[in-house]
Amino acid sequence: MLEDRSCLVPRDFPRESNWAACMNYSLDRIEVQRGKRPLENNPENEVSQRKLPKRSDSLNGEVALSLPDDHAGNHRHAADNSDSSSLIPAIGRDNSISCLIHCSRSDYGAIASLNTSFRSLIRSGELYRLRRPYGVVEHWVYFSCQLLEWEAFDPSRCRWMHLPSMNPNECFVFSDKESLAVGTELLVFGKEILSHVIYRYSILTNTWSSGMQMNAPRCLFGSASLGEIAILAGGCDSQGNILSSAELYNSESGTWNTLPSMNKPRKMCSAVFMDRKFYVIGGIGGTESKLLTCGEEYNLETGEWTEIPNMSPVRAGAAGEAPPLVAVVNNDLYAADYADMEVRKYDKQNKVWDTIGRLPERAASMNGWGLAFRACGDKLIVIGGPRAMGEGHIEVNSWVPSEGPPQWNLLGRKRSGSFVYNCAVMGC
Question: What's the predicted TM-score (pTM) here?
Answer without folding.
Answer: 0.81
